């Protein structure tokens, strides 16, 4: 009967457990999650451009999400939720691992931000719809990607904006993200499973199946002297925005 139980076939339990074990180190910029701290400003630059394009009246505002509701799916310990709150949004963060939600809530309280955090699968939570939905580095950890994206789309308001990022499934990402990055400790061993990565074309087709159309897409690349940056090179990682078709 359709997707009545889709939410129990999305995030694999072992994936949630893996990241839950890292919860207490999530905010340590030099710890196991250092790579997330380095990529966060790059993602935020894309998100700000996407906000300005989607809501042109917000382009010159210091807090362009004022009066808008934002949802971060797979929020971890809140690395993206907190800057979204500072942009003015009323933010909800959802994560499959209760340990991550606890770490996120404690950190937000410590810095004086009012963010609602909830543990569980997004498809099982009765939380309504949101003007902005973000889902960064999550879909590659999902077993049933079409079911997960149905749940994501259901959380998006009719005129809402979706932003997603994920590693590409290429020879380059297999060498750099899974091989070299884990070998040198840039990401914890077991973070990435290359066969579960999604190409931009595949993700665009999956989004189309749930009634969403891609509005912008950039690669997230790295090079010596520049570090991580938005690029036309999508071979390692990419970020996109989408809206209802």
From TrEMBL:
The alphabetized UniProt keywords are: Methyltransferase, S-adenosyl-L-methionine, Transferase, Ubiquinone biosynthesis
Q: Which residues bind S-adenosyl-L-methionine?
A: 43, 74, 95, 136
Q: Its Enzyme Commission number?
A: 2.1.1.222, 2.1.1.64
Tell me which domain of life the UniProt entry assigns to the organism this sequence originates from: Bacteria
What is its pathway? Cofactor biosynthesis; ubiquinone biosynthesis
Reactions catalysed, semicolon-separated, are: a 3-(all-trans-polyprenyl)benzene-1,2-diol + S-adenosyl-L-methionine = a 2-methoxy-6-(all-trans-polyprenyl)phenol + S-adenosyl-L-homocysteine + H(+); a 3-demethylubiquinol + S-adenosyl-L-methionine = a ubiquinol + S-adenosyl-L-homocysteine + H(+)
Query: Which GO annotations describe the biological process of this protein?
Result: methylation
InterPro entries noted in UniProt: SAM-dependent_MTases_sf, UbiG_MeTrfase
Q: Which GO terms describe its molecular function?
A: 2-polyprenyl-6-hydroxyphenol methylase activity; 3-demethylubiquinol 3-O-methyltransferase activity
Query: What does the protein in this record do?
Result: O-methyltransferase that catalyzes the 2 O-methylation steps in the ubiquinone biosynthetic pathway.
Q: Which PANTHER family does the entry link to? A: METHYLTRANSFERASE, UBIQUINONE BIOSYNTHESIS O-METHYLTRANSFERASE, MITOCHONDRIAL
Similarity comment: Belongs to the methyltransferase superfamily. UbiG/COQ3 family.
This protein is called what?
Answer: Ubiquinone biosynthesis O-methyltransferase
Q: Which organism is it from?
A: Erythrobacter fulvus
